[in-house]
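Need tokens for this chain, all 1032 residues.
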Amino acid sequence: MGSKRKRAPKEVPNDTTAAQQPTQKRSKKEPPSEPTTESAPNGAAATAKTRTPKVTLFVEHPTGDDRKREAELYDQLGREDESERIKAAHTIISSLLSGDGVDEPILRRHLEKRLFRGLASGRNASRLGFSLVITEILGQLFGKEDLVNKKYTGLGFEEVKKILVKSTTPFGNLAGQEERNHWFGQLFGVECFVRSGILFSDLKKWTEVLDLLLGLSMKKSWLKTQCGYVIVQAVAQMGKKMAEETLAKLAEEGFAKTPEGVGVWITALDRFPDMRVPGQPWRNPLAASSLSALPAALKDSGREQTSDEGGKKPKAGNWTAQLHFVWDLILAHFARAGQKSEAEAAEQFEQFWNRVVDEGFFSKNSSDSQKFSGFMIFQKMLEGALNCEFIVKILFSKNLMACLMNQAAKEDRYLHRAAIKALKALEAAAQHNPTWLPTILKGLFGKYGAYNFDQRTNTKTIDRILQHTTSDTIKPVLKVLQLKDPSKSGLDFEQYYQALGNYLLRLSNALSEEQYAKESNKRGVAQKAIKVLAELAYSNKAVPEKVRATLRTRATSAFAKLTSRSDTFTDLCDAILSIETEVNPEDELALTVLPRAFGRLKDLLDGDKTTKATEGPRQALALLFAVGILQFYNQDPDVMDLFDELEECYGKLVGESDEEEAGIAEFLVEILLAMVARPSALMKQVSRQVFEAFTPLMSAEAIGLLTDPLAADESAKGQQALFSTEDEDMMDAEGGSDDESEIEDDTALDSDVEMANLEDAGSDAGDADSEDDSEDDGSDEEEDEAEKENQETLDALDKALSEALGTHRLDQDADAESDDGSDMTDSEMMAVDEKLAEIFRHRTKATSKKKENKDAKETVVNFKHRVLDLLGIFIKKESTQANPLVFDAVLPLLNLIRTTTTKPLANKAHEAIQNLSKGIKKARSDGNTPDIEGSEHYEMLEKLHEEAAKDPSHAFTKAVSTCCLTAASLMCNDDDTEADDMAKVFNLYAETQLKWFRGEVKIQASFFSDWLNWCQAHANAAASSAAKKEEK
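Here are the structure tokens for all 1032 residues:
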């Protein structure tokens, strides 16, 4: 690597890494002489300082090691990893052209034997990597560096072009794929000339390259689109005069009336609007005068050309899933036009879309391939029309919508998947551009769409699109949904209002709890939709009476969803207040009660009368009045009793004396128990919210009223004890006979009736696997018991039939003789008939009785679940506040765990006890303790020890032990506690353990081990605290 060129090959290191070292140093912009000086012999160092050395990574006469090094470098250039390709390209370019550059023979060899020939390789990403190097070399040869005149005079433009053609023209009997690789290599080589930017200062050079491109497009039709794209790239770089010459040349060659020609014309006219354009075949393909001829040119833009040698117009081949690049240019053209004048651009695009796309790609005479391309064009416009809403408005044209709905309706349609993909593109457009939602809905519901679009297409498109409604778009969306003239929907009145009710319900249920917390821009959607739904269900006189009941059910379901969020109760109240309905002037009761209820509701919502302490209870009572008004509109027979009880609560809440406020909790519990007895999601949600607001006002009497139902038998007798005979309608509803739930709709979201037994069986399981297993065991036992009862019933039936007929079963007495009845008289036959009728009457009564007992048990169990929900709210909230009333629920909960045969109930009660223990522990950590005397604690602890002896099961013992340890912690771990209180606790455990030892009581051993573990934990904590004090 000294100053003598002839010695260079001998001094090039054979190691590839060492050979690339100078290149790595040059990449850091260090002088190229440094690596050469370091590697040169000592005698040549002085010469290297006065003369620019040559980069000798590539040599004129490579040896075997040189060829191996080159092969590895060019292999890296063709790899799929982009970073590796760029690194190899930088090494090759700098080695060939940096400094004085290599000699011309070396550069020629690389162009001819390596680079241009490499373009014809189909291996990995060879064309991409080799094109990168060739483009840079062409730029330095014929660009600003002008190396062709300074050094490489033998590599003129004609010579380099000749090398390209020679290296990439297939010859001989090549396989189809090899021939294809060669032609694509030639195309990539021509594109290198274009991208290098060396053609546009000399018309002659560009003309030669253009002829080469046109020749390629004629030789192989599948190259035509790619050749057209290269011409478009060239037009985007050239000047006005050269663009005029180019268009004239293309028009002369018949290239204009092709998709590629249209793209070239649009690109040229967008750059030079005032340029001179050939008169034929058109001056501007997108002008109104050219639209009649444009469809013929663009119809085949979705085809893949497959013909081989032919004339100037290649034959069209199979259709492809890749859309032609001309549609990107068309979309970009109208988007730029819209920035200048949206009205003018919209008018031009509407003419283009209707005449070219709608009539050209979706007409009755269009082929399936053209319709497929039309769907892709539709998606392209939706995806690319950013900030161009005027384009979206025009897309829903007549033929397109008819084809879209027809193909999407059934899976066996030929273009069904393409239509579904187009609908998903609509959903994506609504998601990414929520402001487009009203426009999209207008298109789907409009003149060429259908108001019941989802039913027509058997999809959920409208439902999914409505989920993207925001607070900014809800008003225009509601305006689109509510037609001024329902007859324009194409449906009868009943169908229209049912569809409208469905859409409003979707809007009111659009957000989940998680979305509601995160997406604040969507929180106003449900409220506005519910107001419209309530007005439609209760105030709109135009709604047919048959549909009104369905809409009211939907409104109730929407209210239930809304009340599940504590911060939206005012929205429900506002929706109720917005209802304007006529009351029968002869109904004196309604004229008296309804205005008074509205007055109470408005008064409770008055912010001037609300304090921080009364805010929660006033809001909760307002919610109850709102529900009462809703029940009045729904003609609930018990609503008058509810209003009377609410009046009592209202008087006590707003009263000034403590005596008046004292009994509000009892009234409230009675109201809530009546509400939770109904199988309604709305009543369930409202009862929870109201009870949570009133938990600080609960009294011991109120807790007693709440826990009393837990002791009821889970049978018909228990049902009679809980519910009066006047509530038969309610009990029938518990059994599942709610007429309002029988609504003909494709979804169950609009039903307010709650399948409580199914829900509780799944959602109220315990938090341990063992509890789940025990629940399964319980269900298995119930199934075995049912099978046993069925077998007993069948045996009894067999016995009765045998006695009546005088027959026997074959497996009982095979040798017995039986009378076949052939000698029976008519009177005997009549007697047998009467006996059989009597037997089956008794069987029917027994079956009916069993069903009644089963339904009664489900009713009681469901009611207990709702009561436990309320108790769980009270315990979870008030235990953290050290409210002593939480302990009033302990014994009823333990009694339920011990007596119930329903595992989910026991699990839910056990969960409430666990929450009590955790809440008391948290309250004590915050410095709060329940205000209970030590004697009261001890009395409760004694009762708990008595309870522990009533059931030796593991689950019950665990629950009792948790309660005992909670009470013990309050007596033993308080600094102010007297020593004898602590001794009482230890003595009580010792007495109970002694009774257990003597066999007087049966208790699980875990009861005492839990106590010892608790003592051990406290002993360790005390020792640690004492040690810290000694250290100080």
